[in-house]
Design brief:
224 residues, mainly alpha, two-stranded antiparallel ribbon, two-stranded parallel sheet, 8 helices, 45% helix
Length: 224
């Protein structure tokens, strides 16, 4: 699927200087407005996180952004503190025991992502774009999907085309297909439509549900 998309869209995807300026202006204005409007909800959620389990309310994770540069992403903690201390980076499953009771609610309604508006304001992310992954998973995907590198031609986003059409547990190649479709066909109008569709997606908690079981990544071979 990804290969077919690249055949139909040759060349390296990029945003023009004008598109980047307009998109950045929209990001600054939008993130400021949303930070103000959602501040009471974010503060209330942070207090519940802090009171419901030991550990900080805000989780800081290293993610990979535009041009492959790493940055610190902010989100409300939805799992027990030190959830990956023994396992290392792993995907969340539907009945993941590491997720707290308040965390399940925050994940279902995407409230845990609200602190990322600060990342948008600081210029590390955009309101709309491919979701930023952690370095561990980026390494896996880069090996398996050569086209994965094209995702870093734009800033990552809080929401994106893959997030409104795919569930959390969707195959990475399917998400990549929608990410590349977004980048190759970028427009400010499409960003607006994605933001509106995101509101509908938020009302469907099943989209945020984790994997039925932990995915196993087969080793990469020369013929893969």
């Amino acid at each position: 699927m990804v290969g077919d998309l690249l055949m139909l869209c040759p060349g390296t995807p990029h945003l023009t200087a004008g598109q980047q300026s307009i998109k950045r202006a929209a990001d600054v204005a939008g993130s400021l407005l949303l930070l103000i409007l959602t501040a009471p909800l974010t503060i209330a959620a942070a207090i519940l996180v802090r009171l419901s389990s030991a550990g900080p309310a805000i989780l800081v994770q290293t993610r990979v952004g535009a041009n492959g540069k790493e940055f610190s992403l902010y989100k409300l903690r939805t799992m027990i503190a030190g959830a990956e201390q023994e396992t290392g980076p792993v995907m969340a499953t539907a009945a993941d025991p590491r997720i707290t009771w308040i965390g399940r609610i925050l994940r279902a309604l995407r409230i845990d992502e609200l602190p990322q508006l600060l990342n948008v304001l600081m210029g590390e992310m955009s309101l709309v774009g491919p979701r930023p992954e952690r370095p561990h998973f980026v390494s896996l995907y880069r090996e398996r999907f050569p086209a994965y590198e094209l995702r870093f031609m734009v800033k990552p986003g809080i929401t994106g085309l893959a997030q409104i059409y795919c569930r959390y547990s969707a195959a990475p190649e399917l998400k990549l297909h929608f990410d590349l479709k977004y980048i190759y066909n970028y427009s400010l109008a499409r960003d607006a439509r994605i933001l509106l569709r995101t509101l509908v997606t938020v009302l469907q908690p099943s989209f945020a549900q984790g994997f039925k079981e932990q995915p196993v990544w087969p080793p990469v071979t020369s013929g893969d």
